[in-house]
Amino acid sequence: MTNAQIAQILEEIADFLEIEGENTFRVRSYRRAAETVAGLADEVADIFTEEGTQGLQNLSGIGKGIAQKLAELLETGEMTYHRELIEKYPPGMLEMLRIPGLGPRTAALIYHELEISSVDELEEAAEAHRLRDLPGLGAKSEEKILHNIQVYRQGTRRALLGDILPIAERLIAMLRSNPAVLKAEMAGSARRRKATVGDLDLLATCEEPAVVCDAFAQSEELAEVTMAGETKVSGRLPGGRQVDLRVVEPGSYGAALQYFTGSADHNVALRERAQKMDLTINEYGVFKQSKGEKEERIAGETEEGVYEAVGLAWIPPELREARGEIEAAESGQLPNLITLADIRSDLHVHTTGSDGHNTLEQMAEACRQRGYEYIGITDHSPVLNVAGGLTAEEIKQQRQQIDELNKQYEDEGINFRVLAGLEADILNAGQVDVPEEVFDLLDFVLGSVHQGFSPDADKMTQRIIEALESGKVDTLGHPTGRLLLQREAYGIHLDDVIEAAGELAVAVEINAYPQRLDLDDIHARFAQHNGTLLSINTDAHAVSQLDFMRYGIATARRGWIEAPSVINTWPLEELQNWLQRRREDYS
Ligand code: DGT
Ligand code: CA
Ligand code: CA
Ligand code: ZN
Prior knowledge:
Blueprint: H1 3-19, H2 24-39, H3 44-57, H4 64-76, H5 80-87, H6 92-97, H7 104-114, H8 119-127, H9 139-157, E1 159-160, H10 161-176, E2 181-187, H11 188-191, E3 196-197, E4 200-206, H12 209-217, E5 224-228, E6 232-236, E7 242-248, H13 253-261, H14 264-276, E8 279-282, E9 285-288, E10 296-299, H15 303-309, H16 325-330, E11 345-349, H17 360-369, E12 374-380, H18 392-411, E13 417-425, E14 444-448, H19 457-469, E15 475-476, H20 494-503, E16 507-511, H21 521-530, E17 534-537, H22 549-558, H23 572-586
Parallel strand pairs: 4-7, 11-12, 12-13, 13-14, 14-15, 15-16, 16-17
Antiparallel strand pairs: 1-3, 2-4, 5-6, 6-7, 8-9, 9-10
2'-deoxyguanosine-5'-triphosphate binds near residues 189, 197, 199, 201 and 259.
């Protein structure tokens, strides 16, 4: 059982307790426990195996009662307390709680007053204007609920890349470990590394398709098999997401991989190009038809061969969105895309100083082990006290701590440095939350908006640009505030912000956190085109989350980004020179 699954169960208990009208202290204790579990670097299951119930109880925010319930869950796979709560209510109740913005209190009210206990019923009632007369609700909240039902439905239709990719990689590894399989690869949106994935497409080639299909259909990774054929298996992952495996003969593996990788728009453009060359392209190969003769397959075994047959260089999957990549491949102008190996640093990292789960030393060490040359610590600024924002005094202490750690590295001849940054809130009127007396102590400031989201795009744009103009912001964090499948971006004229950042030499972040991926691919590309610098960071709140960097890289690659546009691919000295120059010029 993963930490995410355990955290969800604890959240559900908190939700039900709130519906029950339990006292807020109990509700909060479950939410706190859920947060702790979700943010842990180690697996709770491992802690329990090694240290038992006492090990669980040692975790912050987890008392004896919850520890015992978790022990039951980890031992038996079920928690009686959780099950009893669920069974008290109709099954649709839990789903209703997943609607963004519909808290347990409102859900309880709607349930008790109108006997509504499912998303469909809720939608009907909202459409019939039956919600607006309930105490505390009104026409506005009714509209909002309807809107959020749409958001929720979209969310369940797609999954985060960060949730799907690890599963896809496991499935591919499993396929490849089958001796009958010659090659296997993921296809579809997962291979193109789209921020969200609808269903998962897998492809394999071998001489005996049926054997491979059988083995796959029996895999424990699938919760359900919906179709098991000789060359195709369809099924569902434990969360319900659809997976398709197709098995093809070696001669058409490249063509099938190309076809099923898509995107559909890219394929249409490629097919049109082939037609102009009197060629046919499909999932079996590229074919030439000479008059009176049988069709001849001129490519199909490899993807490179397929592109070559239509006069193109091989196109990285992330670019296959019909956004100019075919023209670029034709003229030898494909970008030299950034890779994970180009990254020398992570410049958005939290520690126990604010709301992170690991210490400064642990985060630094983990970055060093990942082969980075430096790290930028960016705990929250004073105003964000809900997330443990640092006071001026604490910022000074952290500076000292960092100096000591750097000295230690230097003494030991280790080529690694820690930069003292701060994730400073950009406040409502565009002020930057950096205490005057510590500004000069900081190596850099990451400016972010965390509160006071306004629906007014003009206002938000002005607020951010004013913050950049103050000269106090070196990098702009998660610029739109979007949370994929949960919360849309706040209204903002993003192009204006990116242009202003370019003029003021502020680097704009591609936040790699799987829910964020913010900037997105399109705006990252605009930034690079505009000459605005980028910074790809994880926003890690625990050591394990440093691995999110790959999702930021994926987004950057989809945005045609090359390494020199990204400040944390630069050697430390180059970055420091840039920071110094921009401070001299703009603050
Ligand atoms: P998703 O699953 O919604 O995240 O997006 P994809 O891109 O994985 O789309 P999916 O699963 O419907 O199909 C996988 C690939 O197969 C798609 O990217 C291109 C190819 N494909 C599927 N249907 C068609 C089609 O009707 N025409 C063309 N040209 N390609 C198709
Ligand atoms: Ca798909
Ligand atoms: Ca599919
Ligand atoms: Zn952050």
